[in-house]
Structures are given as structure tokens and as C-alpha cells.
Design a protein that fits this description.
The chain is of the alpha+beta class. It contains seven helices and eleven strands. Strands 2, 3, 4, 5, 6 and 9 form a six-stranded antiparallel β-sheet that branches. A five-stranded antiparallel β-sheet has the order 1-11-10-7-8. It starts with a strand and ends in an 11-residue tail after the last strand.
């Protein structure tokens, strides 16, 4: 497996409230996490960094015990639930951090399977045979409007409420993560990203970049495209390249 990532503060924000972590285990299993914080002052940065650190701890300590897909989904839900409780308790005990929260999208890549989970509007995509497939469905007000038929997919990109999410870590005592699984093949690319990318770069442009750019340059190229398109939010892109015979890692 190959790993590369890039995060950027963007063109407008005063600080970067995105966080990401990723790693490779001795058996070749790769795990990856991307979080997008929210909240006043420094609350968003605290929430996302807490989430990323908590999930890193869970993955490195417990991923070896994960067997089948049911185990993986239970593991992901438990790790996210534990992380949610930690952020919620911190927010409740820290007046300056009240109301903080974070999205999360995370994945386990082992062999030819990916198990993933998410809360909020950070997304997982898969590039397979040149086509880009969105694996996650946003927990957002705009996504609900699209599903109700109130607005079109195209209208969702410029809707004034596009940043309102309906689910996040740390804002309530409990949270429900959505989980999924997909098969992958040699040469596929799994992408985890925050909405600083998906709100500014179209799916077609993402697909073209992932398919046409050398792997270790693709995260940089996607971030540059988001910056060129406005870049009014923090931007984070994490890529996992499915490659059976190499265990390479690089963070940008």
C-alpha cells in the first residue's frame, strides 16, 4: 500500500482545523483518518486533533484483533463512540470549548477490502478503473434537501446552508457512525477528504487528477486545484494507493 497526504489552511481561514493521521501495520494493513473541526475560538482544532489522536491510538492498539467485516464495523463504531465521548466530556468541562465538534471519515485497508466509517460531511471516494465513486453520504442539511427532492445535486454546491452538518463527534453524548465496505483492486486509489476539497473541486476533476497524476503528486495537485477555485476553507486530502507488493509511506 502507498500513502500520501496534504493539508492546507486555505486562502481565508485564520487557522487549520483539519487533522489527519494514517499508518501501516506490520501485516500490511493500512488505516487512515481525516477530521474537520468546528467550533469557536480554537475549539474546532482541539476537537479534530483529539479525534485524530484517539483514533490513531485505537487503530494501532486494536486493529490486529479485527478479523471479518463485521468485526471491522464493530471496531470502527466502538472507536468512534469512544472518541465522541472523550470530545464531548472535554467540551463540557472546558467553557472555552463548549460547542466544539468534528467530522470524521476513517478506513481500514487490508488485502482487497476497505472497511470505512464516517460522521459528518468529510468524504471517502474510490478511484476504480478510471471512475470515481463516492462511498460516503454526507450527514448534512443539504444532503437531506437533495434526498427530499427540494434541490438538485447541482444546486447543492452553492446552497447557503451547505456547511450545516446534521451529525458530528463531540456535540452529544452518543453518535451513530455510518459504515460500509468495498472491494479494491491493484491500482485503485482510496481518497479521504474534507469539504474544503469536495466543495471546490468537481468529481470529474478529482477523477482526472487521481488517474492522470503520479501518486505521490496527486494530493498536492488536488489541494492546489481547491486553492485556485477559491480555497475558502481548510483543505485536507489523504490518499491510499492499493499496491500489493510494496509498503511505502509518505506524508506531505
Amino acid at each position: 500500500m502507498k500513502l500520501v497526504a496534504r493539508t492546507d489552511i486555505g486562502n481565508q481561514r485564520a487557522e487549520n482545523q483539519d487533522s489527519y493521521r494514517a499508518g501501516s501495520m506490520p501485516d500490511g494493513t493500512v488505516w487512515a483518518v481525516v477530521c474537520d473541526g468546528m467550533g469557536g475560538a480554537r475549539g474546532g482544532r482541539l476537537a479534530s486533533s483529539m479525534a485524530a489522536a484517539s483514533l490513531e491510538e485505537a487503530f494501532t492498539a486494536g486493529i490486529s484483533s479485527v478479523g471479518n467485516s463485521a468485526d471491522a464495523h464493530a471496531f470502527l463504531r466502538a472507536a468512534i463512540g469512544y472518541t465522541n465521548a472523550a470530545i464531548y466530556n472535554k467540551a463540557q468541562s472546558t467553557p472555552s470549548a463548549r460547542g466544539m465538534g468534528t467530522t470524521v471519515v476513517c478506513a481500514i485497508v487490508r488485502g482487497n477490502h476497505v472497511q470505512y466509517a464516517h460522521v459528518g460531511d468529510s468524504r471517502a471516494y474510490l478511484l476504480h478503473s478510471g471512475g470515481l465513486f463516492q462511498l460516503t453520504k454526507d450527514h448534512s442539511m443539504v444532503q437531506e434537501l437533495v434526498e427530499q427532492g427540494s434541490i438538485t445535486e447541482q444546486e447543492s454546491y452553492t446552497h447557503p446552508q451547505k456547511n450545516l452538518i446534521t451529525r458530528a463527534l463531540g456535540v452529544a453524548r452518543t453518535v451513530t457512525a455510518d459504515c460500509g465496505e468495498v472491494e479494491v483492486s491493484e491500482g485503485d486509489v482510496l481518497m479521504l477528504c474534507t469539504d474544503g476539497l469536495s466543495n471546490y473541486v468537481s468529481a470529474d476533476a478529482i477523477a482526472g487528477t487521481l488517474a492522470g497524476t503520479p501518486f505521490y503528486e496527486a494530493a498536492d495537485e488536488l489541494v492546489e486545484k481547491a486553492l485556485a477555485a477559491g480555497g475558502m476553507d481548510n483543505i485536507t486530502v489523504l490518499l491510499v494507493g492499493v499496491q500489493a507488493d510494496a509498503e511505502e509511506e509518505k506524508h506531505g
